[in-house]
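Tokens as discussed.
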């Protein structure tokens, strides 16, 4: 009985597929809902607030992005260490880590609010605001500052939930919060609320959501005890041994994929930035749509590494890479082949110069997503130092090549300056390192995980290219051609690219998922 209670406290480990599918599914649900809410609310808010007030809101809200540096990489350490001590079934170690992080983030939260206070008092020097906007901008910064500052210590609870591989709980809470905030947003503006009243109400609701995360954390792990008295400097050193490299990884990624507009604006023109923004948005959309699985795999990798489950770690690497590529290759191929009509139908022929740039950035995303399981394995299974230094070197190479080529080749040179370092580090460093970590030959891994996902694009191209020329340059036609191409790709992949044993495995796993859903429905009906 005591053993059953202990296992119930630590959660299940024997149904990884169901867990991953549930986490990924709810993540996509949250992404789609947020996109729809944003699509509807943006014009609604602009209409009721006015362009000036809405712009002020977005300007002050954008400051939250830069406060991610305050976590110094500790934010990326939460899930790793929670999953690690969960795998070890170490209650004291887990609570020590959580309590130490809580104290660290509480101090950072105080520092963060101090920065918001300084910004608010000097808003006239920070932003170019009209006199009548000064008071509103100052108030908005103070309100948003509370949300950001409290979010730091409360992130521990979300991290505990994710470390126990219950991303679905956080996703569902996020969906509920988004719906409630959106409804309140609409009601308040229809009733004539001011910008400050709107931001105060919606921010208060988001802060209340923090307490729901806290409640769920204690449900997921009833033995959780977060107490400032458990803070230990030894734990800080343990956390820092990982967090400093996570910080390098995060900042390298920001340099790799966020600095391009600055370089273009400095060396070409602001008009060129607009031409770059269209391909960048398409690449970001593709990245977000296809790379959700690897985030939820991270605690599974940590658990497998901590539990010395070498076979499971190898299976995660091979199958995760294959599934990542299957998710990104058909979409990336369709966008690559249809980029000309897509750009012309979406933003018009004046953006024709963006077509080749967009195709290059789509290749960058395909490489990143295809290699994402490898980087997840390295990050979660003890090779985070190599990943950090490789990402830093990639960022340096990106900046150097971009500065060199943007002057001679314009936007295409800028895009190639991103593609070459990313492809080089993926193919020659990160992929081989991940293969070594899971003890599989590089060529065997390529044959099992990569090649079956690449050659079906030949059949896809045979179908899509004629459709591209036959259909009009309209968004519906682009979507139709892309959907047909993707179906051809998936049919070819399942029928010919994978072995019979793999097809049987996929069918078994689908049946397992369906059986799990049926059992859940029956249990709910019985209750």
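Sequence:
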């Amino acid at each position: 009985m005591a053993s059953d209670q202990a296992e119930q406290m630590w959660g299940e480990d024997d149904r990884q597929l169901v867990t991953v599918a549930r986490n990924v599914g709810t993540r996509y649900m949250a992404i789609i809902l947020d996109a729809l809410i944003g699509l509807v609310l943006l014009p609604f808010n602009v209409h009721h607030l006015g362009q000036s007030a809405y712009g002020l809101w977005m300007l002050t809200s954008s400051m939250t992005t830069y406060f991610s540096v305050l976590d110094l990489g500790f934010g990326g350490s939460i899930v790793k260490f929670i999953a690690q001590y969960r795998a070890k079934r170490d209650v004291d170690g887990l609570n020590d880590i959580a309590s130490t992080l809580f104290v660290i983030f509480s101090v950072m939260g105080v520092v963060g609010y101090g920065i918001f206070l300084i910004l608010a008092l000097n808003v006239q020097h920070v932003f170019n605001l009209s006199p009548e906007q000064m008071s509103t901008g100052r108030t908005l910064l103070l309100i948003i500052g509370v949300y950001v500052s409290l979010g730091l210590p409360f992130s521990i609870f979300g991290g505990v939930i994710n470390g126990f591989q219950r991303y679905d709980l956080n996703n569902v809470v996020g969906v509920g919060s988004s719906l409630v905030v959106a409804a309140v947003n609409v009601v308040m503006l229809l009733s004539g609320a001011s910008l400050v009243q709107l931001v105060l109400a919606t921010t208060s609701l988001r802060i209340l959501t923090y307490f729901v995360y806290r409640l769920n954390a204690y449900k997921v792990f009833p033995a959780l005890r977060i107490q400032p008295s458990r803070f230990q400097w030894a734990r800080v050193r343990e956390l820092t041994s990982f967090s400093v490299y996570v910080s390098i990884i995060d900042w390298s990624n920001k340099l790799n994929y966020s600095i391009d507009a600055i370089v273009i604006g400095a060396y070409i023109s602001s008009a060129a930035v607009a031409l770059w923004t269209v391909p960048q948005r398409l690449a970001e959309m593709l990245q977000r749509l296809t790379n959700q699985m690897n985030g939820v795999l991270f605690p599974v990798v940590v658990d497998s590494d901590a539990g010395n489950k070498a076979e499971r770690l190898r299976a995660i690497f091979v199958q995760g890479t294959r599934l990542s590529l299957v998710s990104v290759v058909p979409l990336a191929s369709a966008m690559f082949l249809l980029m000309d009509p897509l750009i012309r139908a979406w933003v018009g022929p004046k953006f024709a110069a963006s077509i080749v740039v967009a195709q290059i950035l789509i290749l960058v995303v395909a490489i990143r997503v295809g290699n994402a399981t490898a980087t997840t394995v390295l990050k979660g299974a003890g090779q985070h130092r190599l990943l950090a230094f490789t990402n830093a070197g990639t960022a340096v190479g990106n900046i150097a090549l971009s500065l060199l080529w943007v002057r001679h080749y314009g936007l295409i040179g800028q895009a190639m300056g991103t593609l070459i370092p990313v492809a080089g580090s993926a193919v020659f460093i990160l992929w081989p390192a991940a293969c070594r970590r899971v003890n599989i030959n590089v060529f065997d891994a390529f044959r099992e995980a990569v090649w079956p996902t690449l050659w079906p694009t030949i059949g896809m191209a045979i179908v899509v290219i004629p459709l591209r020329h036959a259909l009009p340059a309209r968004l519906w036609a682009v979507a139709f051609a892309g959907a047909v191409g993707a179906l051809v790709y998936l049919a070819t992949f399942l029928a010919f690219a994978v072995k019979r044993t793999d097809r049987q495995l996929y069918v078994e796993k689908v049946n397992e998922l369906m059986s799990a859903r049926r059992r859940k429905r029956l249990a709910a009906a019985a209750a």
